[in-house]
Specification:
Layout (H helix, E strand, L loop, with lengths): L1 H10 L4 E2 H11 L7 H7 L4 E4 L2 E4 H4 L7 E8 L9 E10 L2 E9 L7 H7 L12 H12 L3 E4 L2 H14 L9 E3 H8 L7 H7 L10 H15 L10 H8 L17
Parallel strand pairs: 4-7, 7-8
Antiparallel strand pairs: 1-3, 2-3, 4-5, 5-6
Helix pairs in contact: 1-2, 8-10
């Protein structure tokens, strides 16, 4: 899959010709050039083709017009290989507005007591919930090729992606954004955990450690963060690149003061 990863990295920076795209797909040894384009689209990569050029829609889409999907999950443990998702909450957001939401508990036979203390979700609450397979299939359809956003995005993204893969649906290829990383570059705070930022930014949410509420809290952190973006951040890929912790910008970044 290294060739596919390199392809995505290249597409995040520039358009490439159809011929070049097919050459890379052939070298990958996991995709057929006749189906590579549609295959990658099916797994959430926002591919587009115009005038025999292949590119990511996020490369040209202004971030204000991008569809973001804010996601949070609750699980009965921290390892995707040993534990499972017990709740998913997600909110689609575009042009400053929430446009759709997804929320579901997931059937699970056992929840440790410490998880119940954190989430207030009990095993009996999940007795009649939909199966993990059913919920993940519906969530994947809801997500489509929107940008996957979460607070500590790698946990939520990888847990869902690995769970889908284990069930035979393959891994996600959506573009992703971490609101912790974005907040660290735009908001001055002592800590960047979601609970701390909720209080620090006076975010009013009905619950913490419930999936939909935490997804909405991440959205509010995002809304606060983008107020302080450098003026040269225009497209979605600009924003994703800016938010990455290893990206360096010589331009002075204006952060929201903790006293404001």
């Amino acid at each position: 899959m290294r060739e596919i990863e390199n392809l995505i990295k290249k597409l995040s920076k520039e358009k490439i010709s159809r011929e070049n795209f097919e050459e890379i797909i052939e070298k990958s040894e996991v995709l057929d050039k006749d189906f590579g384009f549609s295959f990658l689209q099916a797994y959430g990569l926002p591919l587009e083709e115009s005038e025999n050029e292949i590119y990511l829609k996020t490369l040209l889409t202004p971030y204000k017009e991008q569809t973001f999907c804010f996601v949070d999950i609750e699980t009965n443990g921290s390892s995707p290989s040993k534990h499972q998702i017990i709740e998913i909450g997600a909110i689609k957001y575009r042009n400053g507005k929430e446009i759709a939401k997804f929320e579901s508990l997931v059937h699970c036979d056992f929840i440790p007591e410490y998880i119940t203390k954190i989430t207030n979700i009990k095993t009996e609450d999940l007795k009649n919930a939909c199966s993990l397979k059913s919920v993940l299939v519906k969530f994947k359809e809801f997500l489509k090729d929107s940008v996957f956003v979460a607070h500590n995005v790698n946990f939520d993204f990888n847990f869902i992606s690995n769970s889908l893969d284990r069930l035979g649906y393959g891994k996600l290829l959506n573009r992703k954004l971490c609101t912790i990383d974005l907040a660290k570059k735009t908001i001055k705070a002592e800590k960047y955990g979601l609970a701390y930022l909720i209080n620090h930014l006076n975010i009013d949410t009905p619950a913490h450690h419930r999936a939909l509420a935490d997804a909405r809290s991440a959205l509010r952190v995002f809304e606060e963060s983008i107020k302080y973006l450098p003026p040269d951040i225009k497209t979605t890929e600009d924003l994703l690149r800016f938010a990455r912790p290893n990206e360096f910008s010589s331009k002075k970044r204006k952060k929201k003061s903790s006293s404001s």
